[in-house]
Amino acid sequence: MHAPEVPVSRRSLLKGIAVAGVGVAVAELAGCSSSKTITPATTSTAGGGTTAPKSTPSTIPKVLRRPGSRPNPTLPEGTDTLPKIEHIIVVMMENHSYDARFGMLRRGDGFKLDARGKPLDANPMPDGRFVRSFHMPSTCQLDRVPRQDWLASHSSFDNGRNDGFVKASGPVAMGYWDQIDIPFYYGLAGAFPLCDRYFSSTLAQTYPNRRFLLAGTASGVVSTSTSNLDKFFPANGTILDRLHAHGISWLDYATDLPAVDVILKNASTYAKNAVPIGQFYKDAAAGSLPAVSFVDPRFSGDPGESEENNDDISYGENFVSRVVNAVFQSPNWKNTVLVYTYDEHGGYYDHVAPPPAVKPDNIPPGADVPGITGAYDRYGFRVPTVIVSPFAKRNYVSHQVHDHTSILKLIETKWNLGALTYRDANASNLLDSLDLDGPPAFAEPPTLPAPGKAGLCTPGTAGGPIPPPDAIVPAGQAASLRIGARA
Question: Is residue 22 in some structural domain?
């Protein structure tokens, strides 16, 4: 199915990694894989021809805003232009696509369903048959598959056809979970604005995508390798530098590893800004949350909460439930915007082809992996994203194109901060999901379903056949399926 990988896990890497001088252990936030130059292939239909997929239209403006440009050029940096919003909270989990999480929500752009309510979405197998999207046997994932490295992601993308997921990772890539498995997540996405065109920032792994969240660029990084942590510092710094320069309070509430340390310089420069997760619950209860919060699950150790494979995703759902309910009950709720999202798709299938994106800068990908060609000129696959706020619009699904730099743009818009790169300068700012003029629709937060019970399965084992027999479709029935991004 794919080239052999070095059998090393995020958890095993943790044992050998210590950051000199700051005493902070930093581990892989996602699995390691090799990356290679991509030669995309065409895809044959059942009739032997090729099909060009429909895709999300490009949102690249004709005239680009430049790095350093302020959202409101008539006002100085540091000006509060959104006074009703006092707290921005980012809860970024790991490695799941929109369809794998919310394809069955029946709200937003999810799976195409047959008369029985089962997905018609499928990807081809090497033998000419197809694998339909199927319900995962349990909330536990397999070890190290599916894959989401640069090579696997571009193979899955296949020139916009989105029909290479099984080729890249095997049938598990077509697995999904639904309301039975993740009732809290479905309740959250059913109550608050759901973003069905929120893409990860690049077709790659955790580290490059989290770098986009912090700096608006991956600075040439394409892999999740610990050797990248203290290299490739972004030329224009990070959003943390901008917040610090203007005296805007921020904290990373870390269960074990502060995710902002994916750019390791942050660990020493802002050591006092990384605090234990328990402090988050205390600050929320006291109404003393900072202006910007990054709230991180347990990335290493057991039980894993980040939802990276092979985690039991129920532990992640329970973590997010605790965080969201703490915010609901906080005196700070009335002025808060919480963004629940994922760093990248984790190798799981999604039917929407990522559109072109503004290049952040002129740094090509592959600074850490020889042989990479191309550019950071396309978004990654869609990831689950919900905007949680008293100002959130009721019954709203956002179809506007967003990516991780939209979170940067929200922060920059709030305090009129200059953009870090071309990508965040031209990003959306997530405000389409909010109504800051009328009375808050969620002044009283809703009561959401309890999360699923965790620990009922064994990580690394799915608890049933993958794929299940009824997910295999003969080649002769291809006309009944939605294959990748085809209409």
Answer: no
pLDDT 10s digits, 252-262? 999 999 999 99
Q: What is the extent of the structural domain holding 272?
A: 72-108+179-462
pLDDT of residue 55: 59
pLDDT digits (tens, 9 = 90+) for 308-346: 999 999 999 999 999 999 999 999 999 999 999 999 999
Count of structural domains, the chain: 1
Per residue, the 3-state secondary structure of the chain, as one string, reads CCCCCCCCCHHHHHHCCCECCCCECCCCCCCCCCCCCCCCCCCECCCCCECCCCCCCCCCCCCCCCCCCCCCCCCCCCCCCCCCCCEEEEEEECCCCHHHHHCCCCCCCCCCECCCCCECEEEECCCCCEEECEECCCCECECCCCCCCHHHHHHHHHHHCCCCHHHHHCHHHHEECCCCCCHHHHHHHHHCCEECCEECCCCCCHHHHHHHHHHCCCCCCCCCCHHHCCCCCCCCCCHHHHHHHCCCCEEEEECCCCHHHHCCHHHHHCHHHEEEHHHHHHHHHHCCCCCEEEEECCCCCCCCCCCCCCCEHHHHHHHHHHHHHHHHCCHHHHHEEEEEEECCCCCCCCCCCCCECCCCCCCCCCCCCCCCCCCCCECCCECCCEEECCCECCCCEECCCECHHHHHHHHHHHHCCCCCCHHHHCCCCCHHHECCCCCCCCCCCCCCCCCCCCCCCCCECCCCCCCCHHHEECHHHHHHCEECCCC
Residue 1 lies in a domain: no
Which CATH number is 442's domain given? 3.40.720.10
pLDDT in tens, 425-450: 999 999 999 999 999 999 999 999 99
Q: Is residue 287 part of a domain?
A: yes
The verdict on residue 129 lying in a domain is: no
